[in-house]
Amino acid sequence: MAAPPSKLTIRRIFETDITEQQRKDIVDMLTESFRQSMMLNSIISMKVDARDPFHRMCLLAGLDGGEVYVAETPSGEIVGAAIWVIPGRSFLDTKELQTKALVPLVEALEPADSEYWMSTYLPDYIKYTNECFSEIGISKEAMWNLITLGVLPEYQRRGVSKSLLEPVTQKAAQTGILRCLETDSETNVEIYTRMGYEVKGHYTFPKGDITIPMWVMLGK
User: Fold this and answer.
1) Which of 82, 164, 170, 209 has the smallest CB count inside 10 Å?
2) CA 62, CA 14: separation in Å to the nearest integer?
């Protein structure tokens, strides 16, 4: 049985003290929480072996150039995580990070998906998100950027996501720094809107016979 949300602890995980078991637990939790993600499933063509490398990439990016927060039960089970890139950094912005985080994902993908990820999705993603924020006179690198937010299915719609975002929400409010995120789900758009975010743009990535939607959102 899922622990009541009031019993969960939200805490930051640091690169200097994270254990290998915690790394695995966070990746496993994200893999489970994103099992139905249209964006992820479309990019990796439902390739099971590529799920963990994708989420490991996000975790490594957060530990290196951001902040990672987890929701834990009293027994220490990790049931949710929010991973941010801090202002002044960007996603996978160093060669070292690309080597240890991005390369394993690319190697896990089928050749056609690897080519799509590197030649189409990533360049278009960077271009479009930058355009959305340049229209309001701010760069993405100047904001808190939510890379990923995942909660186990049995803990969803119970306020865990909001609790995971709260530490950075408070930091941003104290400093006047904006927050941004992207999502592929209209349901998530509604959830983030209730948390005070607003849609700044909507884009679709073509991939074969399908299109992958993305909403760009801003939090003030």
Assistant:
1) 209
2) 9
